[in-house]
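Box 3.1 A note on notation
Throughout this textbook, protein chains are presented in two layers. The first layer is the amino acid sequence; the second is a token string describing backbone geometry. Keep the layers aligned when reading.
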Amino acid sequence: MPFSSFSLHFKRNHRTLKIIMQVRVHVLVSGIVQGVGFRYFVYNKAVSFRLIGYVRNLFSGEVEIEIEGDRSMVEEFINQVKVGPRAAHVTDVKIEWIKCTGTPAGFEIQ
């Protein structure tokens, strides 16, 4: 992963100093992922992991996700997306690490 695709933040909690590595990822999910509640599944996971970004259906039948947040949370989020909701059947997940934007907005379904 190139240096330009993440940023470091320092957070002080009482007596400890925690380093948070912020990353941003562009994800394309293929398979049976439209019409099965996949975007709502992604939304709920993103909100629970306190990530920012968006999810949307593409005309190609894929679902596009752009997500930003703490690297460990993003990685766990991606693991959840690879499984998807019960009715979905994920066949491929393409991941591209991109530059962080730091946009303070929440997560939305487009």
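The two ends are 28 Å apart (CA to CA). Confidence is low (pLDDT under 50) at residues 1-6.
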